[in-house]
Amino acid sequence: MGKRVAVVGYGQTYQRSSRKDVNGVELINEAVRVALADAELTIKDIDAIVIGNMDHFEGINYVDMWSAEGSGAVMKPVMKVTTGGTTGTSVAMCAYYHVASGMFDKVLAIGWEKNSESDTTGAIITAFHPVWERPNLGGAVAGLAIEASKYMHDYGATEKDGARVAVRERLHALNNPYAHLHQEWMKGIPPDQLVDLIVGSEQNQLLAYPLRMSDMCPRTDGAAAVIFAVEGKAEKIAPIPAWVQATANRHNFVYAGDVDMARNTTIAEASQAVFRKAGIKEPLKQIDVCELYLPYSYAGLKWIEDIGFCGYGEGPRLLWDGVTDMDGEMPINPSGGVMSSNAIGATALIRVGEGALQVMGRAGARQVNRKVNLAFCSGFGGCYWADIMLLGRKKPA
């Protein structure tokens, strides 16, 4: 049996469309300094470092080596992890397992991206099979549009349902000073009215039916860092550590054409594995808050069904009933989520960091209005790759 491990520190940069004031090393260092200060540690206290980003997007490899002065990895063990959009959660899981194994006491996990200096669409296109897939999946938007269209066809969901997810995420982001998108004009307007305004706007450009600009995440420059510590050390660092209850990972497909557009089977299987490990029978009732990797609006309908928070076709009802809002039964993405900030390599790690803040009760204006015993954090990427990390107040058995 592995050792028990907790998140004890978290830091992120302000997420912005472009950070021309810093290079990659400096951007990484910003997040590292904030995380160390949060845990009241110095880089000398860190035993090892795990780092990752979407190097395929930027065409810059070996981040584990050239960023050493920014990450603090000089003369320390350093490992690089890159798994597409899930990079951040994969980095977190790698750090967690290295501590749980007993190899290290404290490991620093770092995710980062400078999307302003990359070609996301070009990179995604060239990642697909050149004959069978590239002509049909010209970037992320097209594949997600297929999934959204399938969901609408199967369950009668509408563009308004997708817009309601976008409204929730952007309203939550207004409480998060680090979020990239701050749509101040939304303040004070009821969600139902905001949905009508968004759907009816001529400026809300159609990208690939049914997806419009408002349905998609931004391209962001930013970095994040999370510190994992072993039992016995964690309690001395953090007044309320966020203990890792369970993790799971699924990457079932090689080709995008193999993906079942009717179900996100990878996130379904990973979620069920975590629930079994943690003894969760009723996820909607037992989980207090979620930080989900939702790169576009319809994922906020369909994927919560795949996870098991409700039955198939019931996502819109949960949404419109306010269950997933800040003051709802199970708030989703109090931080504003991926649809408000998407520095890809950092994005899923931010989900873990934000979930930890909720457990610790230190999320500030974005803290939910209840004691958080369990926070469910997810990552998504690649050919429907899924990572899940469950954090909680109590040490796991």
Q: Can you walk through the features of this model?
A:
The chain has a domain at 5-119 and 219-237: 3-Layer(aba) Sandwich (Peroxisomal Thiolase, Chain A, domain 1), CATH 3.40.47. Helix content is 36%, strand content 17%. The protein is built from 15 helices and eleven strands. It has helices at residues 24-39, 55-58, 63-66, 68-71, 87-100, 120-127, 140-155, 159-173, 191-199, 234-237, 265-278, 283-286, 299-307, 315-320, 344-360, and strands at 5-12, 48-52, 78-80, 106-114, 206-208, 211-212, 221-230, 242-250, 289-291, 374-381, 385-392. The strands form two sheets. It has a nine-stranded mixed sheet with strand order 3-2-4-7-1-8-11-10-9. A hairpin with a 2-residue loop joins strand 5 and strand 6. Helix 5 (87-100) crosses helix 15. The protein is globular and about 55 Å long.
Determine the oligomeric state from the structure.
Answer: single chain
**Biggest β-sheet: strands ordered side by side in the sheet:** 3-2-4-7-1-8-11-10-9
Content-based structural category = alpha/beta
**Uncertain stretches:** none
CATH fold type of the domain at 5-119 and 219-237: Peroxisomal Thiolase, Chain A, domain 1
State the gist of this model:
The protein has 397 residues and is α/β, with parallel strands linked by helices. It contains 15 helices and eleven strands.
How is the topology of this model organized?
Blueprint: E1 5-12, H1 24-39, E2 48-52, H2 55-58, H3 63-66, H4 68-71, E3 78-80, H5 87-100, E4 106-114, H6 120-127, H7 140-155, H8 159-173, H9 191-199, E5 206-208, E6 211-212, E7 221-230, H10 234-237, E8 242-250, H11 265-278, H12 283-286, E9 289-291, H13 299-307, H14 315-320, H15 344-360, E10 374-381, E11 385-392
Parallel strand pairs: 2-3, 2-4, 9-10
Antiparallel strand pairs: 1-7, 1-8, 4-7, 5-6, 8-11, 10-11
